[in-house]
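thought: user wants a sequence for this fold. calling inverse folding tool.
action: design(structure=
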């Protein structure tokens, strides 16, 4: 019985299959085609998606590389500027040292010339005193000579008068004509000599010679004395003039040295001021480089995500509380970035990430405006003026953040 039932059931199943077979097979083929088409579309979509992801990843890597390169170039530029300032300062220091050496040399020369000038002044004073003494001696001797000449004349007159009284001879002191000479003699109770013997001739000649010789000797002695004094006086005058010329030359040299020292002092002071200014700029640049080296950028994220990125790297979003730092940060980036300021916890109550209040802001005109309480996070926009480039914005927007260690 069981065998017959099975055979019957199988025959019935085959009959049913023969009736419905063509329709079922056609439907199955359609389903296979739909599945193949659906699989192809998925494969294309997956390929396009992967390609887009690769492109976006490549763009992100390029942008990240550009940002890093720009940051490196900026720091390198600062370092190059610092090195240039160091070279300039070293050059100025060298010039300053050379000027100081020249100044000390000029001061030594000035001291030497001042000492020499003092010696010359003393020498001129001594020579002037000697000259005055010689002048007084010349005047005294000239007076003495005049007195002696007067005395000689007086004695000669007395001698002549005495000689005329005793039949002696005397001579006139001046050259006269024969008539004037006779009158001169007769006025004195005498007359021109009468020579009527050889003895009288000899006496006359001898007396005349002795008198003339006496006059000559006296005059020669006085002339020698006067000439000697005059020579000494002339020598002293020449020495005085030479000393005066030397004194004038040294005075001019001293004046030139004083002017040079004054100019060098002014130049040294100016160089010192330049060195001080450059040192200050160098310090500022070094501080800027050191400061910039403590900053780094996050990827483009929301404000909260950027802050978390900074904190994950041992930092936090930057806090700006001075104009100097505002300028440094603005020069650090060329794109809009998040800073560590927000009023997330209380609308209108701006606080930094260290929970300190905002005391100094660098807002764009009309900012912060809140936009209905939706803009709670602050971005810095370096394309605007450096002291007016803060803007409140939606915290969910994607921006890079500046992290500060």
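)
observation: tool returned 405 residues.
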């Amino acid at each position: 019985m069981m065998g017959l039932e099975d055979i019957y059931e199988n025959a019935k199943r085959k009959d049913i299959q023969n009736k419905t077979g063509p329709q079922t097979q056609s439907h199955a083929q359609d389903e296979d085609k739909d599945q193949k088409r659906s699989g192809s579309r998925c494969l294309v979509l997956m390929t396009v998606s992967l390609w887009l992801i690769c492109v976006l990843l490549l763009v992100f890597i390029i942008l990240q590389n550009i940002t890093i390169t720009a940051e490196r170039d900026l720091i390198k530029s600062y370092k190059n500027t610092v090195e240039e300032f160091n070279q300039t300062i070293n050059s100025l220091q060298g010039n300053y040292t050379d000027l100081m050496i020249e100044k000390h040399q000029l001061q030594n020369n000035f001291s030497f010339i001042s000492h020499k000038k003092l010696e010359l002044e003393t020498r001129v004073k001594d020579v002037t005193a000697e000259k005055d003494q010689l002048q007084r001696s010349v005047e005294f001797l000239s007076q003495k000579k005049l007195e002696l000449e007067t005395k000689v004349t007086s004695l000669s007159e007395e001698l002549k008068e005495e000689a005329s009284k005793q039949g002696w001879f005397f001579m006139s002191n001046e050259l006269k004509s024969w008539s004037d000479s006779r009158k001169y003699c007769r006025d004195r109770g005498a007359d021109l000599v009468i020579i009527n013997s050889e003895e009288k001739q000899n006496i006359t000649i001898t007396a005349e010679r002795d008198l003339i010789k006496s006059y000559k000797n006296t005059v020669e002695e006085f002339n020698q004395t006067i000439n000697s004094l005059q020579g000494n006086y002339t020598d002293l005058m020449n020495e005085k003039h030479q000393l005066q010329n030397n004194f004038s030359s040294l005075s001019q040299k001293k004046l030139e040295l004083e002017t040079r020292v004054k100019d060098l002092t002014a130049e040294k002071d100016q160089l010192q001021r330049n060195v001080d200014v450059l040192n200050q700029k160098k310090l500022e640049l070094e501080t800027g480089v050191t400061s910039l080296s403590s900053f780094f950028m996050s990827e483009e994220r929301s404000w909260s995500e950027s802050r978390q990125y900074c904190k994950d790297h041992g930092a936090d979003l930057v806090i700006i509380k001075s104009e100097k730092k505002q300028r440094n940060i603005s020069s650090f980036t060329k794109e809009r970035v998040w800073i560590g300021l927000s009023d997330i916890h209380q609308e209108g109550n701006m606080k930094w990430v260290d929970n300190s209040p905002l005391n100094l802001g660098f807002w764009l005109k009309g900012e912060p405006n809140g936009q209905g309480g939706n803009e709670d996070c602050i971005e810095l926009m370096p394309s605007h003026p450096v002291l007016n480039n803060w803007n409140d914005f939606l915290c969910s927007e994607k921006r890079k953040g500046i992290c500060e260690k």
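thought: summarizing for user.
answer: Here is the designed sequence. The beta strands are 295-297, 316-317, 337-342, 351-352, 375-380, 390-394, 400-404.
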